[in-house]
Amino acid sequence: MTTQGALARLIRSSARRTASAEQERCDLCAAPVPDEHAHLYDLSEEQVACACGACSVLFADDGAGDGRYRLVPRRRIRLPKVDTEVLGVPVGLVFFVPRADGTVTAEGPSPAGAMRWEVDAAAWRRLVAARPELASLAPDVEALLVNTVHGLDHHWIVPVDDCFRMVAVVRREWRGLSGGGRVWPAVERFFADLTERP
């Protein structure tokens, strides 16, 4: 699955930073990048790429490029409860990504990476009509991230790189058939660390 490629890249990137003091590099030109740097979403590979300042401007799709990359926004907005049950996705930890072609995918983490479902487009339109802030999601690069596991009630508009990080947390911490004792505390820490950004 293509999302696994993005997930593998984030895991490798995290492992590299932990294993050595070597500075992270731009995935497009290999220039060093600071800890806080831009990401581009590769539409053809469905992967997130780290980008230096120059590449984030040069390769981001602003109508002038070939349209392969989109700049991943940085905004995060915590929302009041969103009734995602109307979308028919039977998991409590999931993210919904509207696509440029009008489809919407739901993706949930698993020990093997992200599982993906297509959401009924009419159900999504009804949800957006009830919650107009969801209409502002940038296609392919922003998501509605939901965690209702163990009675939690987290609903966020986030950049897709946050979603890939969440999937990486689950994959890294999962043990055995049921996840073990480490995965859910790690997920709770992930959500506790999310902060709103304009």
Comma- or semicolon-separated keywords:
2 domains, globular, alpha+beta, 198 residues, 5 helices, 24% strand
Notes on the protein architecture:
With 198 residues, the chain is an alpha+beta fold. The protein folds into two domains: 2-71, no CATH class; 77-193, no CATH class. It is 30% helix and 24% strand. It has a six-stranded antiparallel β-sheet. A three-stranded antiparallel β-sheet has the order 2-1-3. The radius of gyration is 17 Å and the shape is globular. InterPro entries: DUF5947.
Quick structural summary:
Pfam families: DUF5947 (PF19372). Helix content is 30%, strand content 24%. It has 5 helices and 9 strands.
How are the SSEs placed, and which strands pair?
Elements lengths: L1 H18 L18 E5 L4 E5 L1 H7 L9 E3 L5 E2 L14 E6 L5 E7 L2 E7 L1 H10 L11 E6 L6 E6 H14 L9 H11 L5
Antiparallel strand pairs: 1-2, 1-3, 4-9, 5-6, 5-8, 6-7, 8-9
Instruction: Round the Cα radius of gyration to an integer and report it.
Output: 17 Å
Overall geometry comes to globular
Number of domains: 2
| End-to-end gap | 32 Å
Strand content: 15-25%
Please provide the count of β strands. Answer: 9
Helical segment count: 5
Strand order of the largest sheet: 4-9-8-5-6-7
Structural class: alpha+beta
State the major sheet.
6 strands, antiparallel
Proportion of helical residues: 25-40%
Order of helices and strands: HEEHEEEEEHEEHH
